[in-house]
Model the fold of this input.
Amino acid sequence: MDSARTSTASRTPLRALATEAVHAGRDDLARQGLHAPPIDLSTTYPSYDSRGEAARIDAFAATGAEPDGPPVYGRLGNPTVARFETALARLENTEAAVAFASGMAALTAVLLVRASLGLRHVVAVRPLYGCSDHLLTAGLLGTEVTWTDPAGVADALRPDTGLVLVESPANPTLAEIDLRALAHSCGTVPLLADNTFATPVLQRPAEHGARLVLHSATKYLGGHGDVMAGVVACDEEFAGHLRQVRFATGGVLHPLAGYLLLRGLSTLPVRVRAASTTAAELARRLAADPRVTRVHYPRIGGAMIAFEVDGDPHDVIGRVRLITPAVSLGSVDTLIQHPASISHRIVDADDRKGAGVSDRLLRLSVGLEDLEDLWADLDAALERAPVLVDETGATTASRPWSARQHRPSPPPARPAER
Done:
């Protein structure tokens, strides 16, 4: 994807994704004598021109366009967050992006925008992230959802359908959808594609017809497990509506989070490619392992693996030592979790199973550790260690020879890294 080019209304040069990741949102810094972007922590901004400020607020209320001139108030926008929004829009090749306090806040804002127009019906394809599924199913925002497979989307549309929602690759099965074909099936109804797993490094849904691209920025965009955020990349018209909802509901992103996300984007292509290389090899080894019954890995690649085990998945979770047993994904360290117990527990059991989320499924978010170290940890976790008693009466854990045969040979010794 390095050769892929972006072009938005905000600028004319065409630059590679890796270049945009480093420079987008920072193009003005050198002219200001700055290298790192500043963090603006102000919640309010002084103005001696109250008439002019009132006019700018009125303009925002009418269209949701970003106010011209100096900032007004933290809920209308923040300069540091705006840098991240500019950068993400460039990476996703959209006109704009609007950031929120979390991925769920971002999805909520989209649903509220459509509901405000009387379009409360949503067509959705399972599986989705468990809390997205719950938000739709529970009708917490007054929405009604029709669940269908991709082939049934066109028939599920109604006059009051405001949105079609998909996730590809999907959480947690990594099922993939032909976004271009699906966008065609949507007609004039906006297609929202959750691109959290793929990131713009692997796919740009807007280039395949999606009007809205959703990210839980907590994941790969931040990339270090230390920031929570959500963002929607879209056209400027929809962005205006999202900004109005954000102002009214207060689901704003903190400036420090905006700074961390902008920093995270600069290494996004490198991190995603490195983790994807490791994940592809781990998926290959897991597929050849008799202790694993099924492996799910996307055709487009990526750092996520889902696999079903022959034994108890909870035992595997309890035996990892290097890999972190935790929710979330996209961090520099490798995480593993049991979706049926955690991320998708809130989804009805029958609906989970119907979407391919089995009780033996484990989801692995591959980080930046050494391949052989990760495989050694997985290999040990997949094998139940019998307890032996030595001649002194002490108990020792020992793995059978058949399990040790699955472990690849250790790599040759290498010089200590400095």
In short: The CA atoms of residues 5 and 14 lie 6 Å apart. The first helix runs from residue 17 to 23. The chain has 15 helices and 16 strands.
